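Fold these two proteins, one after the other.
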Amino acid sequence: MRVFFLIISLFFLITKTSGQEEKKTKNLDSIQVNLKRSLDSILKNTTNDLNIIVLKQKLKEITPKKPKEEHIGWKDKANFSMLFNQSAFNFDWQGGGTSNVAGNTTLNYEFNYKKNSLTWDNKIIADYGLTFLKDEDFARKTSDRVEFNSRLGQKIGKSLWNYSLFTNFRSQFDKGYRFTKDPDTEETIRTEETHFFSPAFVQIGPGLLWKKRDNLHLNIAPVTSRMIFVDKEFTNIPDYKDGDYFGVDTGESSRFEFGGSLAAYAKYNVAKNISLEQILNLYSNYIEDPENIDIDYTLNVNLQVNKYITGSFAFQSIYDDNATSGFQIREVIGLGLKHEF
């Protein structure tokens, strides 16, 4: 009897469930019929041109986008800019100031190679600027740098890490002077302190490269050799003692260092037409005073007004106890012309 009542209960339950499912199916069929009628009415009351436009748009949305093909081989890019700055004050101006004209040119040239898991990135940076002050006999440099960076990378599996080998060369184009005043005549005296390849810095070392994209990467080289080259005419000057001229001893023209380096690069857009670029280089000499870490930090902010007109702000801070005991600070702001090719 219990089995009989159980079978009867299951039968009524199945019958009820089937009725509910049949009702749901009828409701769904009714909704689909009404939707089809409404859609047919809309299509009949609109022009064919509009229907075609809507259909093309929907096809674009549902069609999967083709993956971007990875570039193989060499690829280069160059950026050249000229910045100008001018200030003028007449004789009756009481607020103080010196009339001046300043100009600065910058060239960034990249030529990179990529094939499969191998990358070879190269970059040349050239920067030179002068300012002319009224009633001054000599022009003053606002910037002077030539730098070459080369880095070879081999990807480690499918991670963001790469084996790397980097080379860096850094020097300047023109002579650098120290300006003083003659106590008797009040005339400006300039004394040459540097020139091309004096000093010149060369670094090379293997390491590990973390590279998320071309504009965001970090290179760690715990085994790095560095050479500093200078002209003997400066190390023979009585004012410079051993190690006073960029760490090079008296009568010598070079200095060898062995240590570790870290190089970080990040570039991103902070707003429309405004990009921010940060470059950080650290170096520690294991042989002598490893706690005195050399620091070279650069911040570049670029405002693209239109295709050819640009505004820029550059800030650079250098700490190298072989050159001076404090931070070297450089800041340049201006509006000028820019061309990419």
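Now the second one:
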Amino acid sequence: MMIKKIIGLTLAALLTFSLAACGGKDFAGNYKYKLEDYVKLGEYKGLEYQDSAIAVTDQEIQAEIDNRLAAAKGTEGFNTELKDETVENGDVLSIDFLGKVDGVAFEGGAGEDYSLTIGSGQFIPGFEEGLIGWKIGDKKDLNVAFPADYGSPELAGKDAVFTVTINSGTRPVTPEYGLDFVTATSEFKSLEEYEAAVKEELLQKKTDEALALKQNTLWNQVMENAEILGYPEGEADARKQENIDYYTNYAKQYGMDLNAFVTAYFGMDEASFSEYLDMYAQTIVEQEMVMYAIAKAEGISLSDKEYKDLLVLTLKEQGFSGEDAFKSQSGMSFEEYAGKENLQKTFLLEKVINFIVENAVEKA
């Protein structure tokens, strides 16, 4: 499962989320440290930004439709059943197979009604390629060799014979654009309605991107204008440890330790990752203090009703109808997954940034 907005598998996104995890303030307004000792706000109202015109061209609409046609290839209703055709790359087959090394079947080398897309790389080199040119109903022996670096030492480098039967197969088809495609994949009854909806979606996407750019631009100005006087004791270390704990648990889901996970997914060694976490934790604390300072200066807070409303909205943005839908997929509530305090502070940050945007000035 991937939570699209709150947590995503990128280093920057996951660490940025920790901005909402600091413990500098509760929502009664009682700070655990004196903000004025650590941050001095600069200008954060009346900041300038440059807006650009938002429009969607006919070419962009056509490109989006082409992408949707390509994405529909091979999905239900957009494939043909193989009969007398020979197997080609990209075909989806149902196969039975039994593999043997030196005439002896080995563990994991057998399967029935196994769904295999030719060219997907699910099997060792030579297996899928060896099925090209076969026909439905064929039962033959396929001679292949396990790679020398294969994960099972007892099979690495060994020659094998797989007896394979092709039970059935389908060939993915890219649909043509027309009313049949529109009615099969959407609720629209005409091409005009469909294309108008595509245009509206693209326009909304550009509008959202423009707003995000404006927010980032203005927030960067706020941070540049602020003066950081110091750091509350232990705050940066706590943020770093939170991220270490998060990645450690994430790595366990892949059966890896932290160092192996970081190397595999982010291309960093242990020392580089630790240095990056130090830098980022400090940045998080800086941004958090500025956020709190603006909230305090402007009397911005988060009521229980606002929190509940934003929680519902956030779930919808993730594609869930509510807490029950999320819990049925993840086994826990969204609050348990993301942390109530984290969510509260994320929503507070949104309110602060919205205040900055509302009080900004568009360049002439």
